[in-house]
Amino acid sequence: MTEPDTIEPLDLRFSQAELADRRDSIVEFIQTSVDDAGADRAVLGLSGGIDSTTTATLAVEALGADALHALVLPGEVSDPEHMSDAERVATELGVEYDVVEINPFVDLLLDTFGEVEGDYRAVGNARARTRAVINYLVANHEDGLVIGTGNRTEAMVGYFTKFGDGAVDVNPLGNLYKQHVRQLARSLGVAEELVTKTPTAGLWAGQTDEEELGIDYDTLDAILALHVDGPLSATATSRAIEVDEETVERIGDLVRASQHKRTPPATPPRS
């Protein structure tokens, strides 16, 4: 019996010229956003993952290390290795950072609403929203802008907490697929172990992004690029990347179901 052929991921990487242009564009975007807001600096939640590390690196390039305040916000289920990576990144970038344990805040919520304890999704989202509150507390105090770290891949399928990690003023990586973020990170000199580290939102113990999504990032990127953002039907996309059509349709359903996360709160029509 022969082994099945390995399916190569769809190569979405930029050319070197395109990558340089995208980098310059993001740096200018950060500078302009802070200037237009009349802010003095920026605040960013640093998790030790590729997205926040890449964003922090670009923010330092745009604003200077003195104008970025990083917050490392570990919770009960946070991997100590990730938190150590976050502190190391902040130190290497030369930015001010604080480590704030979120457990006391989340525990207060659970003490108040005891029936929620054990609901891993509700509690996980509460952790993300607690981090957002701390980000904005510091940003308001320092007259700063909260910089988000999300990418397009996760935003399109709703893989973020509404009013949690989605609660930011600007999102510099918001138009980049995960594959693009990896390419950009490497070009910025981000450590390879951070580029290839298993992505996790750290909302509950043992959680990983790809396991929760039920699909690997390269395949998800391809479906979004070809079917959601691109012109191909679910059937054509399935053939092009050799993935079953049900998976393609499921991703399309995720995009549609999460639209409310990407738009302002709905209001009734004006009479």
From TrEMBL:
Family: Belongs to the NAD synthetase family.
Name recorded for this polypeptide: NH(3)-dependent NAD(+) synthetase
MF-aspect GO terms: ATP binding; glutaminase activity; metal ion binding; NAD+ synthase (glutamine-hydrolyzing) activity; NAD+ synthase activity
Domain (NAD/GMP synthase): residue spans on this chain: 25-265
Residues bound to ATP: 45-52, 149, 178, 200
SUPFAM superfamilies to which the protein is assigned, alphabetical: Adenine nucleotide alpha hydrolases-like (SSF52402)
NCBIfam families xref list: nadE, PRK13980.1
Pfam family for this entry, one: NAD_synthase
Its EC number(s): 6.3.1.5
Keywords (A to Z) from UniProt: ATP-binding, Ligase, Magnesium, Metal-binding, NAD, Nucleotide-binding
GO cellular component: cytoplasm
The organism of origin for this protein: Halanaeroarchaeum sulfurireducens
Annotated binding of Mg(2+), by residue: 51, 154
Assembly notes: Homodimer.
Annotated HAMAP family: NadE_ammonia_dep
